[in-house]
Design goal:
heterodimer; A: mainly alpha; Ribosomal Protein L9, domain 1; 2 domains; 3-stranded antiparallel beta sheet; two-stranded antiparallel sheet; 6 helices; B: about 250 residues; mainly alpha; Methane Monooxygenase Hydroxylase, Chain G, domain 1; about 50% helix; disordered N terminus
């Protein structure tokens, strides 16, 4: 049956329903496009034959191949679109700089899309708050206090806060830091929020 | 409103009410999630499956649903496509062949005047199984009956079977019958192994169950005062788990 490879791509994404980005299946994509080309060629010859010889009984086969082409198109579009949704989620979860292993899973066009999205988001954020700018990726949960107690989960080197003091983030060290500086690191799993 | 006696309008009304119910339920459960705070994984919002007889073009769930196979009978011949039919070795598919085609192909080829193919109802939507469902919907293992019982049933209504009103009615009544127990278990199974509760549910019910569970977990952590605790993003944690697994041989 046609379109088996296309449904494989969809199943691959469905397996990771929590929003992780699997590697870009370039091979699979190419196979689906080849199948579409083959179907299109067969349909072209059949249409020409049907028109020239007046063989109307070829029409159901032409319709069937056309359905397969539409199905492949649907699967590919859904595959690419879902990957873009996952990449968009990465901007909100990880921040603007993606770790290398994640970037490795994206194809060149997706990296380009990510850069464009970052730029759009940044210019939108700058335009908020009467031209002063507002970082809407911060404060995902309503803040209860300005400063929070955090514990370091792994070595992250030196960290500078707004008044110039440099803090050394060593594993298991605890610090009392401003909330807006730590939020990004907490989300990335470097720091842990300690509730007393 | 005066209902039409057969076909289209009554059927669509019934399936619409079926899915209105589930959409309202999802709405209620999403409200309970917003009790405390947004969960991290709400950054990834996949395209939701379509409601009732419609499919969403980009929804992964709908694409997998329409991959299910249906028994059909061809009403015309398909020249040069004999290789699709595994049982015989002919060059063409002849008229009157009984074979199985996926739902997407059946929907694409189906025409009202029945010149191309006629779709037979899968046995779970036929008279026999319908009486079982009407008798007691709670005992049935919907996961075994094809994981997309409600979805496939709603799509079958496209094929103008004379039994459409009864099929729609059975789908609706089964959902209503099972709903109470599903909602109850999803709202009360806290910190437990839920595999026994989930294994007999079909995909729509599983989605409702999961959203109920996430609402319950959010509420419980809000009660404990953990709602204001900043947490690592679950996407990040999952990537880290995968990396460690890659390193281990």
């Amino acid at each position: 049956m046609f379109c088996e490879k296309a449904i494989e791509l969809i199943r691959e994404l469905q397996r990771m329903s929590d929003g992780q980005l699997p590697a870009f299946n370039e091979d699979g994509l190419r196979q689906v496009l080849q199948e579409m080309e083959a179907l299109y060629e067969q349909n072209q010859t059949d249409v020409n034959e049907a028109k020239a010889d007046g063989r109307a009984e070829l029409i159901p086969s032409i319709k069937l191949r056309h359905c397969c082409l539409l199905r492949n198109q649907r699967c590919l579009t859904a595959y690419l679109y879902d990957r873009l949704l996952r990449i968009r989620a990465l901007r909100w979860e990880y921040g603007s700089v993606l770790p290398a292993n994640v970037r490795f899973h994206m194809c060149a066009e997706e990296v380009q899309w990510f850069t464009h999205y970052k730029k759009s988001l940044a210019s939108f954020m700058r335009s908020l708050g009467g031209g002063e700018g507002l970082d809407i990726t911060q404060d995902m949960k309503p803040p209860k206090s300005l400063y929070i107690e955090v514990r370091c989960l792994k070595d992250h080197g030196e960290f500078e806060i707004d008044d110039g003091t440099v803090i050394l983030l060593k594993k298991n060290s605890q610090h009392f830091l401003p909330r807006w500086k730590c939020e990004q690191l907490i989300r990335q799993g470097v720091l842990e929020h300690v509730m007393s | 409103m005066a209902p039409k006696q057969q076909g289209g309008r009554v059927v669509t009304q019934q399936t619409r009410s079926l899915l209105n119910i589930s959409v309202n339920i999802l709405g209620i459960q999403l409200l309970s999630t917003s009790f405390g705070y947004k969960m991290d994984t709400l950054s990834y919002l996949p395209v939701q499956p379509g409601v009732g007889m419609e499919e969403n073009f980009l929804s992964l769930d709908d694409i997998l649903l329409s991959h299910e196979r249906l028994p059909i009978r061809t009403e015309c011949s398909f020249p040069r496509l004999g290789f699709l039919e595994k049982s015989s070795d002919t060059k063409d598919i002849t008229e009157g062949t009984k074979m199985e085609l996926p739902l997407w192909l059946s929907k694409g080829l189906y025409e009202k005047k029945r010149r191309v193919l006629s779709v037979e109802l899968p046995k779970i939507y036929k008279e026999g199984w319908r009486t079982v469902f009407n008798a007691d919907p709670n005992v049935v293992d919907l996961h075994k009956m094809g994981p997309y019982y409600y979805g496939l049933g709603s799509q079958m209504l496209h094929f103008d079977s004379p039994e459409n009103p009864e099929i729609a009615q059975t789908l609706l009544q089964t959902f209503i019958g099972r709903f109470r127990r599903n909602m109850d278990s999803s709202q009360n199974a806290y910190n437990e192994d839920t595999s026994a509760l989930v294994e007999r549910l079909d995909c729509l019910e599983k989605a409702l169950f999961t959203s109920g569970q996430s609402g319950l977990n959010s509420f419980q952590s809000w009660e404990k005062g953990q709602a204001s605790q900043l947490t690592a993003s679950s996407l990040v944690l999952n990537y880290r788990k995968r990396k460690i697994n890659d390193l281990q041989p």
